[in-house]
Amino acid sequence: MHLSHTVRRRRRCPGGPAMLTANKLSKSYGGAPALDALDLEVPAGEVFCLLGPNGAGKTTTLNLFLGFTRPSSGAAYVGAAHVEADPLGARRKIAYVPEQVRLYPHLSGCENLAYFLGLSQARAPSSAELSRLLTAAGLPEGAVHRPASGYSKGMRQKVVLALSQAKRAAALLLDEPTSGLDPGAVRELCSAIRRESDRGAAVLMVTHDLGAVASIARRIGVMKAGRLVEVTSATGVSEAEVIALYRRHFDPPGDAAPPLPSRSSAAAAPAPEVLS
Ligand SMILES: Nc1ncnc2c1ncn2[C@@H]1O[C@H](COP(=O)(O)OP(=O)(O)OP(=O)(O)O)[C@@H](O)[C@H]1O
C-alpha cells in the first residue's frame, strides 16, 4: 500500500490506532546498516520496550522517530505526521526522555517546564498548574521552585514527564531512562511512565533494564544487528522470563554464565535537549 507523506490513513494495529509507525525504516552509516528495514507499530496506550545489545540499532530507531537523523530508506510516522516531511508536526506530538536529561540549570523545574511548554503551545499555564503537573509527575513539592542545577537525574526526568502530560504528547520516547537510578527511583519512573500510557501515550522505551521491562512493557521487541528479530507480548511476564528471552537470543553457546545487560550502565555522553 502506498503511503503518502502528508495525508495518510491511520493504520490500525491490534491495540488501536498506531501512534508510532516504522515502514521498512533503514539507516546506514558509510554503507554499514545500523537499522535494517524496521517494521513497527506502537498503538496509543502501549508500552513497547526495545531490547538488544550495544550497537543493535535501538538508539538509531529513536533518533529516526525524533527526526535527529534522516533515514537511508523507509519512513517513520508519529500519528499521521511523516517525520521527514513534517518534522515539526511530528516533534510536537512527542515527549523525549534521553539518557541524560538536560535542563536549564539556573531555572527552576517550574520555569523549565513553562519554557519547554511555551515552545510547543501558545497557552501559558499558571504557575499553580505547572506546579500541579510537576508534583503529579513525582517531583517533590519542595523542588518545584528550586534551580534545576540541584536536581537528581530522576528529578530531571520528572520535568520531562510533566511536559509529556502537559502537552498531551501522543508518544513518549525514552532512551535507557533507568540507567544510574536507584531501585526506588526506578519504581517511581515506571509508575510515571505507566501513568502516561494510561493517559493514552504510545511509549517506546529503549532499555537494558530487564526488571523494568517486566514491570511496564506490554510488548517487547528484540533487536540484533539492526534487525527486529522478535516481538512478543509482555503481559504478565516475570523478570526471569524476560531474562530467559534475552538469553535465548544473546547467550554464546556453551557459555555457562554469560553477561546480562547491567541495570545501570550509565553513560557520560551528553544527550540532546528536551524536545517540546
Ligand atoms: N552517527 C553515527 N555514525 C556512524 N555510526 C553510527 C552512528 N550512530 C550509530 N552508529 C552505528 O550504528 C549502529 C547502531 O547504533 P545504535 O546507537 O543505534 O545502537 P544501540 O542499540 O542503541 O546501542 P547501545 O545499547 O550501545 O546504545 C552501531 O554499529 C553504531 O556504531
Automatic annotation (TrEMBL):
Q: Which UniProt keywords apply?
A: ATP-binding, Nucleotide-binding, Transport
Low complexity bias: start-end ranges:
262-276
Q: Name one GO molecular function term.
A: ATP hydrolysis activity
- Which protein, by its recorded name, is this? ABC transporter ATP-binding protein
Does the record's keyword annotation contain Nucleotide-binding?
yes
Which PROSITE patterns does this one have? ABC_TRANSPORTER_2 (PS50893)
Where the record annotates domain ABC transporter, the positions are 20-250
Sequence segments annotated as region (Disordered): 254-276
Would I find Nucleotide-binding among this entry's keywords? Answer: yes
Matching entries from SMART domains are given as: AAA
Q: Which domain of life is it from?
A: Bacteria
Q: Which InterPro entries match?
A: AAA+_ATPase, ABC_transporter-like_ATP-bd, ABC_Transporter_VariousFunc, P-loop_NTPase
